Amino acid sequence: MPWRTILFAKSTVRLGWKEEDALGGLVLALSSFALAWPIFGAKYLPFVDYPQHLAAIAAIHGASDPRFAPYFAVDLTGSQYLLIYFVGSLLATPFGVDGAGRLLVWLSAASLPWAVAWFLREHGRPALLGTFAAAIALHIYVFWGFLNYVAGMSLAIAALAGLAGFTKRGGWKRGVLCSVLVLLCFYAHAQAYLWLVASALIQWLAMLPRLGWRLGWWRALASLLIGVPSAVGAFLWVWTSGVLEHGEAGLRSGHASQMASVPPVFIPIHDTLRSWLDHSFGMYVDGGGRVDSLFILCHFAVPHCHPRKS
Fold first, then answer.
1. What is the 3-state secondary structure (H, E, C) of the chain?
2. Are 57 and 17 in contact (CB under 8 A)?
3. Confidence class of residue 264 from pLDDT cuts 50, 70 and 90?
4. 236 half-sphere exposure, CB direction, 13 A CA radius
5. CB under 8 Å to 294, separation ≥6 — which residues?
6. Cα angle vertex 273, ends 261, 204, to 5°?
7. What are phi and psi of 298, to 5 degrees?
8. Rounded CA gap, 299 and 68, in Å?
9. What is the pLDDT of residue 136?
10. CA 25, 30, 33: angle at the middle one, nearest 5?
11. How many Å apart are CA 220 and CA 141, to the nearest integer?
12. Potential cystine with 145: which of 47, 83, 197, 275 (Cβ 3.0-4.6 Å)?
């Protein structure tokens, strides 16, 4: 079988919308509108880092404004959070900075149920179950104001769902869609991107028995090609952010300039991984982080417990 056919051949089985999918879409839409009420109805959003995000959006959006230009220098090469701030700058034109910030919070939170529903549907489960994710859409990371990470979570799950569909059915359009989602996930948050890479490997291993070794390995190769744009983006960020010179990168706006005269501080990789795990699972003494993480991990695990033939 030609390699192009193996990598990008489409399945002859067409998956149409079922009645439960239509019902799930309706419930998901209602949950999205329900999540909009507290975000757009409150006079002030009580999110810790939210003012910082608004300030970054305002600085980027007003870079050409003579009232801002003398005081702010916008350098996008030192930041990896380009997605949220770039989209926020575009939205600030019709909606203002505060309106753009609220829209970003809503889109980041409301997209979680849709991403989970897509993931479940790709693994043969009802999309309607994804609506349960709306119950934790305004989770602890939202209230801490980790807007980039919140968006990265939803994009990572959506990319994982897209990769599942591509692994089963192929098609260059699905491949392009997956590549875009993975790239957007990286530019939302690097940590969510790394979790996506690890989850994609676990998902591929779980799907391998159903695919067969030959097709599975070829689809794994195609998935590596899908990840090339995001890998290039990660390389450019590492190369230009100062991490090679100073041992850490200017993730947040303004930090890169503060590290210009700081000597290198390189942390062992095992300490870095341990701190990331603690940040994701053990940082919040109220248990919110653990509950959210277990909820998401269960959503990943359930489709593989009793796999169905697609």
1. CCHHHHHHCCCCCCCCCCHHHHHHHHHHHHHHHHHHHHHHHCCCCCCCCHHHHHHHHHHHHCCCCCCCCCCCCCCHHHCCCHHHHHHHHHHHHHHHHHHHHHHHHHHHHHHHHHHHHHHHHHCCCCHHHHHHHHHHCCCHHHHCCCHHHHHHHHHHHHHHHHHHHHHHHCCHHHHHHHHHHHHHHHHHCHHHHHHHHHHHHHHHHHHHHHHCHHHHHHHHHHHHHHCHHHHHHHHHHHHHHCHHHHCCCCCCCCHHHHCCCCCCCCCCHHHHHHHHHHHHHHCCCCCHHHHHHHHHHHHHHHHHHCCCCC
2. no
3. low
4. 14
5. none
6. 130
7. -65, -40
8. 45
9. 86
10. 125
11. 32
12. 47
| Residues sharing a CB contact under 8 Å with residue 217, sequence separation 6 or more, in sequence order | none
The two structure tokens encoding residue 135: 């119950």
Taking only the tens place, the pLDDT of each residue in 28-53 is 889 888 889 889 988 888 898 999 99
Task: Report how far residue 20's alpha carbon sits from residue 268's, in angstroms, rounded to the nearest whole number.
Answer: 49
The single residue listed with the structure tokens 């994982």 is 160
- What is the value of pTM for the model shown? 0.76
The pLDDT tens digits of the residues spanning 95-116 come to 999 999 999 999 999 999 999 9
Say which residue the tokens 């875009």 belong to. 180
Distance of alpha carbon 169 from alpha carbon 8, whole angstroms:
8
Q: Which two three-digit tokens encode residue 299?
A: 């959503």
